[in-house]
Predict the 3D structure of the following.
Amino acid sequence: DGGITQSPKYLFRKEGQNVTLSCEQNLNHDAMYWYRQDPGQGLRLIYYSQIVNDFQKGDIAEGYSVSREKKESFPLTVTSAQKNPTAFYLCASSISQGNIQYFGAGTRLSVL
Amino acid sequence: GESVGLHLPTLSVQEGDNSIINCAYSNSASDYFIWYKQESGKGPQFIIDIRSNMDKRQGQRVTVLLNKTVKHLSLQIAATQPGDSAVYFCAETPGGGADGLTFGKGTHLIIQP
């Protein structure tokens, strides 16, 4: 069953805590992306990676970090520096830049 | 700054009617456009895409029209069904899509029985 898997579906963060959201794809896609979605809003780009061991900041990268050690994995860490982390986080991948992006089911992050 | 936006936040249509969802973009460098459908609590689902060298593209029950002169994009859904109820986003990317997509805020399509 091919696709993009995000986990966990729901995540709670305590004050001052870093949390990591998982994103795995078995589509053999080179490019992967992280977006943030707030209620009633469109998606905003956090980070993207066009190839393994390389990634770039998107529009709202502050307070977030990523790694791309493997082609199939692109985890996102929400650090304690992100003061308003409550949102729906979506991971996407595409075969290469400039092609259709396919999305995972999302992770909903809340602050305790 | 440049952005992608939608004209109406909510669109209500009768089941069986055709739906037209509009999108305006302001980045003249945009050359690739995608429509996504997002159901509540789920990730966006690809519907149809179009590149700037085309004016129209058709899929199953959906048609996307691109007017580069006025920077306008529309999604037409034929014979709207209850399962079409969702938020629809247009997204654009300039310069061959080297970066991520820029999304509009979305239009919530409501189907009346």
Remarks:
- The two ends of chain B are 40 Å apart (CA to CA).
- Chain B has a mean pLDDT of 88.
- The interface with chain A takes residues 4, 32, 34, 36, 41-46, 49, 89, 91, 93, 96-106 of chain B (CB under 8 Å).
